[in-house]
Queue: 2 jobs
Job 1
Amino acid sequence: MICELCGKDVPVLNPIVIEGTTLNVCRECARFGTAAGEGKRASSGGRGSLEERLERRERRLRERDVFGEDEYVLAEDYPQRIRRGRERLGLSQEELATKLAEKKSVIAKLEKGDIRPDNALIKKIEHHLSISLRERVREALTPGRRGSRPLTLGDLIKMELDKKKREGS
Ligand SMILES: [Zn+2]
């Protein structure tokens, strides 16, 4: 059984509620939330160690940033970025397709978001349109609020769940 908060493999999971989200977690993480269905705080004082964990995680992310590429993901608005980039150069979909040695239908689907470009295609498009189709994972996870306020418990849980989703599929 995998703890949904820290990812540890443990024999027993406890359902808890943290900021409205129900999670199955290990005993250690159970103190961060309220036991599901009981409505009482499992413990106070768990906050400190969670914040430590958060800090360690931040540090880890900062360190990994140095190594670059793996920390970049396809931007969710890649269809608009491609279209804007193409129109800025005054190219038709067909002309861009020719430049990229792709079919026109591929460009059309990309701009509608019907297909996601693979890494090779991303690089080709970025190169020919002089745009970036990628953004840093951290920015993708916490859009527009970097540095504006400290991460909350809810943010941390969302990040953990997103990470699991990415790793799991
Ligand atoms: Zn745990």
Note: DSSP finds eight helices and five strands in the chain.
Job 2
Amino acid sequence: MGEFQLAADQIQSFRKNGHICLRQVIGRAEAAEFRKVVNAAVQMHAAQNRDSQVPLKDRDTYGKAFLKHMNLWTMDNGVREFVLHQRFGKIATELLGVDGVRVYHDQALYKEPGGGLTPWHQDQYYWPVDTNNTVTMWMPLVDITEDMGMLTFASGSHTKGYLGTLPISDESEEVFNKYIAENDMSIHCEKSMQAGDATFHYGWNLHSAPPNSANTMREVITVIWVADGCRVTEPINDNQRRDLSRWMPGLKPGDVVASDLNPVTYHRNANACVS
Ligand SMILES: O=C(O)CCC(=O)C(=O)O
């Protein structure tokens, strides 16, 4: 993989709106390879994970939204090569305007045919870190259309910061729908994305996704990065306590986010690509 050239207006647009869609971050052949390794890791992980075996109709709203498989890069060398690749880390670094980035975690988010909506939420509600410079890449591994659960953003919402103790739930959907309408925020989603296209959004950006009304799986891999040098904060809810022990094992409030699970994947000064 070579480098992806970000234009200045794309960076400006990301910082203003809190999200951007970049086309062909990786090419079709690479996306097909990425899909192969992610699917194999997902299958292995699903065999050990009971949630994915509960029938769709018996799950709650969060459970109906997607099947989730996390930190696949730690389980499979093929996934590791992609997730830790400096091409992605460089885009994250340039969008955020920081010196470098560390991986927070990856997750495959597969919305099944008939899968439910992903309620409006803020990702960073889950993350005990002392920076606003966090970003998620959301990359379909198959071509998708709007009706398959396209990621949908409330433009500019990242500038509001923390908006409350609202994990992904029916309540977050209701409260944030109202908030977005009251604040006259514009809502944006792509009509279609090809495998290898990717959206990037700030951790505080409000986002959601409609149900998957197609009859094929919406296969998506996400990777989250935080600015290199940021520190752990005192967790303010149980989700943050869980995140601290899972994604930053051994660290405590005040520590630099630099556990074994948080490698630097790109840095402007010392190129520390670990893939
Ligand atoms: O894929 C989805 O439906 C939601 C994804 C999401 O919330 C995220 O990547 O932050």
Note: Helices lie at 8-17, 28-47, 61-65, 77-83, 86-96, 170-182, 238-247.
